[in-house]
Amino acid sequence: MRIEYSPGLADRVDIRVLCQVVHAAMTQAGIFPLAGIRVRAFCADHAIVADDHAQNDFAALTLTVGAGRDPAVLQEAGQQIFAAAQTFLADPLSSPHLALSLEIRVSEPKLSWKDTPIHNRLTGKDKS
Q1: pLDDT tens digits, residue range 11-40?
Q2: Quick one: DSSP state of residue 97?
Q3: Cβ neighbours around 88 below 10 Å, total
Q4: With CB atoms 3.0 to 4.6 Å apart as the test, which of 57, 70, 90, 102 could cross-link to 61 if both were Cys?
Q5: Is 115 helix (H, G, I), strand (E, B) or coil?
Q6: Could you tell me which residues come within 8 angstroms of residue 70 by beta carbon, excluding any fewer than 6 positions away?
Q7: Whole-model pTM?
């Protein structure tokens, strides 16, 4: 999960807690192996949101997943993750100055390379 956000959002909420909320929602969805979950947040140093109102902020969540999951299962997981983010961001969402989005992208296996010893450790395949 990649969370990109506007600088002002960090003044309104704790971004680390947002990461923890999203991580928990992904874990609870039950379709993502723990060893594969990564939640990263990046502040957009410069951003113009909508009408460039000084109070406008955004949080754009992008989840890239490996191929092979049923779209309906991904949709259900996405709804759970989005609902968790909405709940955490309820206060800023109650104002007319926040844009929240979530997009799930499916990665093409032939165009994705990974070397993740963490996966082996968490799945018990690492004998060290």
Answers
A1: 999 999 999 999 999 999 999 999 899 999
A2: S
A3: 19
A4: 102
A5: coil
A6: none
A7: 0.88
User: Long-range contacts of range 19-26, CB-CB < 8 Å, 24 or more positions apart?
Assistant: 21/84, 21/85, 21/87, 21/88, 22/61, 22/81, 22/84, 22/85, 24/84, 25/80, 25/81, 25/83, 25/84, 25/85, 26/1, 26/63, 26/77, 26/81
Give kind and range of the element (H or E) at residue 2.
strand 2-5
27-31, 89-93, 107-111: range with lowest mean pLDDT: 107-111
Dihedral angle, C-alpha 44, 49, 53, 55, nearest 10 °: -50
In degrees to the nearest 10, what's the CA dihedral of 8, 9, 12, 16?
A: -130
CA dihedral 127, 33, 60, 75 (to 10 degrees): 170
The yes-or-no verdict on residue 43 having pLDDT over 90 is yes
